[in-house]
Specification:
25% of the residues lie in helices and 17% in strands. It is of the alpha/beta class.
C-alpha cells in the first residue's frame, strides 16, 4: 500500500478526509534543551502555545537530533540522512565558508515542490552561503526566504540589543567578521540586522505566507528554524522583560509568541484541520552560558556532547482532529520527518540512502516506531572514530565519550572540554528507561543478558558503519573572507563597511 493511500485511510478514520494535500509547518528551535519547556517540566518557562500543542497533540519523550551542534543537525533534518553522508561535518559552517549543503542533496522542500507545494523558510539557515549565494535556501527548493544565513552570534553583536534599546544583551559574539545580515530570498535587505524588530518581521513573513497559500488553495510547507534560544539571547518589546527566566526566558517567550501567531493564522485561514505541525530542537542547551544557556532537565550534559543532553530533544506533533492527544515513548528522530512528510504528500522518496523511517504509526495510531536504533556522531565527526554511541531499544552503549566547551560550568566532570576523549572497551551501557541521566553503567560481569545486549548493539553498529559512505567534508574546505555576505561588496575597508 502506498504512503498516500495509507495516509488517506488514516485521515478518513479520524473523520478528516480531504481531496487536498496536507500542509506542513516545521518549527525548529535553536539550542533548546530537553528541560526548557513548561510541558517538559520547567517551572518558570512561559510557553503557553507550545504547551497547548503538547496537550492537544503528541509529545515525544525519546526524540533525537543527529548531532550535538547545529549545521549537521539541520542538514539531517532537511535531507533525512546523517550529516556524514552529505559532508556537513566536522563542526559548523561559518559566514565565509567555502562549502555548504551540496546541491545534489534533496531537501524536504524539493520533495514537496515536485508535488506542487509552495515552500518557504523564515529564520536561521546555517547550511551555507557560498560563492554567488549558491548554497542559500532558494537553491535548495524554497520559493521564499527571509532570514539570517547562519547563527546570529557569528558576527559582531554591538547592535544586538534587548529592550529598551539602551540595554545591551548578555554575551559576546564573533569579531572580525561582517555584521549579521538579513536576507530576503537572495538579497541582503538589512546589515546589521535589527534584532529588536527581527521576530516581528519573521512572524509577519510566516503568517503572510500561510494567508497567501490558503487564498490560492495551494498546499504549502513552512519551515521556521528560529534563532531562539541560541546565545546571546534577544527579544523585542513583546517579550523582553516579560518572563521569569531573564534573557533566556524572554527569548523563549518570543519564540512561543511567534508560534502562537502562526497557529492563529492556520485557524483563521481555515486550514488548521489539514495541517501537520511538527516542533523540535537542533541540539541540546549551551550549558557553558549558565542560566543564559538553557537546561537539559534530567539528561546528562548538553550541547557538543553525545550524552543524552546533547542530542535528545523536546518534540511535538500536532494535527487538529487527526492526531489524538497523548505522550509517546517510541524512538524517533529528525531523520524521520522527511519520509513522513513525503508519505503524507504522496511524494516519491529521494533515490539515495535514507536514514529515516516514516512515523505514521506513531502519529496516527500511537503505535510502534519503525526505528529500532539511533546513532550518535560527535560534534567533530570523523571516519577514524566513527560512531561514539549507539542506542538500540532502551539500551545505549558508549564506545567513546568526550566533553565539550559548550557543556562547561556544570558540576558533572564528564561534560566540559577538560573531559578528554576516552575509549571504552568494553563500552559503557545504560538502560535509558531506568536511568535516562546515564548515571549507572550496567555491569557486564555475571550478566549474560547485558552481554547479549552488547553483542546486538555491536552488530547493529558494524552493519551501519559498513554502509556509511562519508561525503566530502564541506566544512574542511575552509573559509574565505571574501565570501562573507556584504551588502556593499565593492566597499572598503571590510568588514566594517558592510552596512546598509
Amino acid at each position: 500500500m502506498s504512503y498516500r493511500r495509507f495516509a488517506c485511510l488514516i485521515l478518513c478514520a479520524f473523520g478528516a478526509c480531504s481531496a487536498s494535500k496536507p500542509n506542513f509547518v516545521l518549527l525548529f528551535a535553536d539550542d533548546l534543551g530537553f528541560g526548557d519547556l513548561g510541558c517538559y517540566g520547567h517551572p518558570s518557562s512561559l510557553t503557553r502555545n507550545l504547551d497547548r500543542l503538547a496537550v492537544e497533540g503528541l509529545r515525544f519523550t525519546d526524540f533525537y537530533s543527529t548531532s550535538p551542534v547545529c549545521s549537521p543537525s539541520r542538514a539531517s533534518l532537511l535531507t533525512g540522512r546523517y550529516q556524514t553522508r552529505s559532508g556537513i561535518y566536522p563542526g559548523v559552517l561559518y559566514p565565509g565558508s567555502i562549502g555548504g549543503l551540496p546541491l545534489n542533496e534533496t531537501t524536504i522542500a524539493e520533495v514537496l515542490k515536485a508535488q506542487g507545494y509552495s515552500t518557504a523558510i523564515v529564520g536561521k539557515w546555517h547550511l551555507g552561503y557560498g560563492e554567488t549565494r549558491k548554497f542559500l535556501p532558494t537553491k535548495q527548493g524554497f520559493d521564499h526566504y527571509l532570514g539570517i544565513p547562519y547563527s546570529h552570534d557569528q558576527g559582531p553583536c554591538h547592535n544586538l540589543t534587548c529592550f529598551p534599546p539602551d540595554i545591551k544583551c548578555f554575551g559576546f559574539c564573533d569579531v572580525g567578521a561582517v555584521t549579521v545580515p538579513l536576507i530576503h530570498n537572495e538579497n541582503i535587505i538589512q546589515q546589521p540586522a535589527n534584532f529588536l524588530e527581527l521576530e516581528k518581521a519573521y512572524s509577519n513573513f510566516g503568517t503572510n505566507f500561510i494567508i497567501d497559500s490558503a487564498k490560492k488553495k495551494q498546499p504549502f510547507f513552512l519551515y521556521y528554524p528560529s534563532h531562539h534560544t541560541h546565545y546571546p539571547q534577544f527579544a523585542g518589546s513583546g517579550a523582553a522583560g516579560r518572563s521569569l527566566r531573564g534573557p533566556f526566558g524572554d527569548s523563549l517567550l518570543e519564540l512561543d509568541n511567534t508560534i502562537g501567531n502562526l497557529m492563529s493564522t492556520l485557524e483563521q485561514t481555515g486550514v488548521i484541520n489539514n495541517t501537520l505541525v511538527l516542533f523540535a530542537s537542533d541540539n541540546g542547551p549551551s550549558l557553558m552560558r549558565e542560566s543564559h544557556g538553557g537546561n537539559s532537565g534530567l539528561l546528562k550534559c548538553g550541547k557538543g556532547t553525545t550524552y543524552e543532553g546533547g542530542m535528545r530533544e523536546p518534540a511535538i506533533a500536532y494535527w487538529q482532529g487527526v492526531i489524538k492527544p497523548g505522550v509517546t515513548h517510541e524512538l524517533a528522530s529528525t531523520l524521520d520527518i522527511l519520509p513522513t512528510i513525503a508519505g503524507l504528500a504522496g511524494a516519491a522518496l529521494p533515490s539515495v540512502m535514507l536514514d529515516g523511517f516514516d512515523m505514521m504509526d506513531i502519529l496516527f495510531k500511537h503505535g510502534k516506531s519503525k526505528r529500532k536504533a539511533m546513532m550518535y556522531y560527535p560534534m567533530v565527526a570523523e571516519e577514524t572514530y566513527g560512531l561514539f554511541a549507539v542506542r538500540l531499544g532502551k539500551y545505549k552503549a558508549h564506545f567513546y565519550t568526550r566533553g565539550a566547551i559548550h557543556s562547561a560550568t556544570t558540576p558533572d566532570q564528564d561534560c566540559p572540554a577538560t573531559a578528554v576523549l576516552k575509549t571504552h572497551n568494553p563500552p559503557l551501557i545504560f538502560d535509558l528507561e531506568a536511568d535516562p541521566s546515564e548515571c549507572y553503567p550496567l555491569p557486564l560481569k555475571d550478566r549474560p543478558d547485558i552481554q547479549a545486549v552488547l553483542e546486538q548493539i555491536k552488530k547493529v553498529k558494524a552493519e551501519f558503519e559498513a554502509n556509511m559512505v562519508f561525503g566530502q567534508s564541506q566544512i574542511s574546505r575552509g573559509t574565505d573572507p571574501n565570501l562573507e555576505p556584504c551588502c556593499n561588496p565593492e566597499c572598503s575597508p571590510k568588514p566594517t563597511c558592510c552596512h546598509c
